[in-house]
């Protein structure tokens, strides 16, 4: 049995990727996986909310339905008193370094002990790809969300041939890595201008669906065909997943949209970066 132990302050998309890699690994190797750290996001997804992942050994709640705060206290005490025994082990993923979930020793422990996993770079890329459709099914949002997304995308399609999702990540990016990826509106305008020029050259009408964690000054993009997202965390994420292309600063938010919708994505690494359609790649 493996239990994901800590939230580590991560937001939705980071948690989705972490959970998904563990799901893929557990499904492939048939051990029990419990993720109580996903509690505040369970509300958006049927499987997570209802602790029902079909025939797969995956759960978001313990049988006694204990709140995460209680589990967190007990697991921290366990880790402090004894990090390993015949029956359990605490496994810490090193900071900024991937931990390979397909490691034979790790899998042996997951099948025969209670393993408490702490860290966010636990990865199993091969099985993530293999079981990607299962992951998408588990994390398809509720109908009330998909209905809103469908209405927005239909409206966008009525006004364009191509929809380019633009993720304007603000919020915590003002301080993350000293604001390296906190781009002002003129940088986004420059990038979508390059995209506009490309689609103009091939006779395609392009619409830019703009989503952000802060309010967007639509007037700064008045020269383009622009539509704003709903502003909702889930609605914007899955609206971006319905676009034809995605662009934005490095973020697991746009990466999840790319993965879920199989949409080519280009991350803006530098404000002087040129935008080329052939550089857009799908996350898988």
In short:
With 284 residues, this protein is an alpha/beta fold. It is built from ten helices and twelve strands. The protein is elongated.
Helix content: 25-40%
Per DSSP, the total helix count is 10
Order of helices and strands: EHEHEHEEHEEHHHEHEEHEHE
Number of domains: 2
Structural class, by secondary structure, is alpha/beta
Name the shape in a single word.
Answer: elongated
The mean pLDDT is 92
Q: Over the alpha carbons, how many angstroms does the gyration radius reach? A: 21 Å
Number of strands: 12
Flag low-confidence runs.
Answer: none
- Report how far apart the termini are: 27 Å
% residues in beta strands? 15-25%
- Main sheet: strands, sense, barrel: 5 strands, parallel
Major sheet strand order: 3-2-1-6-4
Keywords:
alpha/beta, Rossmann fold, five-stranded parallel β-sheet
């Amino acid at each position: 049995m493996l239990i994901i132990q800590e939230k580590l302050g991560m937001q939705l998309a980071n948690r989705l990727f972490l959970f998904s890699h563990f799901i893929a690994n557990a499904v492939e190797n048939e051990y029990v996986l419990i993720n109580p750290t996903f509690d505040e996001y369970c509300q958006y997804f049927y499987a997570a909310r209802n602790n029902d992942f079909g025939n797969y050994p995956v759960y978001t709640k313990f049988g006694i339905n204990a709140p995460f705060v209680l589990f967190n206290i007990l697991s921290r005490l366990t880790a402090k008193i004894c990090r390993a025994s015949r029956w359990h082990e605490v496994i810490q993923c090193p900071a900024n370094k991937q931990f390979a979930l397909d490691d034979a020793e790790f899998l042996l422990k997951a099948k025969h002990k209670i393993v408490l996993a702490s860290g966010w770079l636990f990865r199993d890329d091969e099985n993530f790809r293999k079981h990607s459709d299962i992951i998408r099914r588990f994390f398809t949002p509720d109908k009330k969300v998909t209905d809103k997304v469908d209405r927005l995308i239909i409206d966008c399609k009525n006004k364009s041939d191509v929809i380019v999702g633009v993720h304007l990540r603000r919020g915590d990016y003002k301080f993350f890595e000293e604001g390296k990826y906190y781009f002002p509106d003129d940088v986004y305008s420059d990038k979508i201008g390059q995209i506009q020029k490309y689609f103009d050259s091939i006779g395609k009408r392009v619409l830019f669906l703009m989503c952000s964690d802060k309010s967007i000054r639509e007037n700064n993009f008045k020269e383009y065909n622009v539509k704003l997202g709903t502003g909702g965390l889930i609605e914007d994420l899955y609206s971006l997943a319905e676009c034809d292309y995605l662009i934005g600063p490095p973020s697991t938010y746009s990466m999840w949209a790319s993965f879920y919708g199989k949409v080519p994505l280009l991350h803006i690494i530098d404000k002087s970066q040129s935008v080329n359609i052939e550089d857009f790649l799908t996350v898988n």
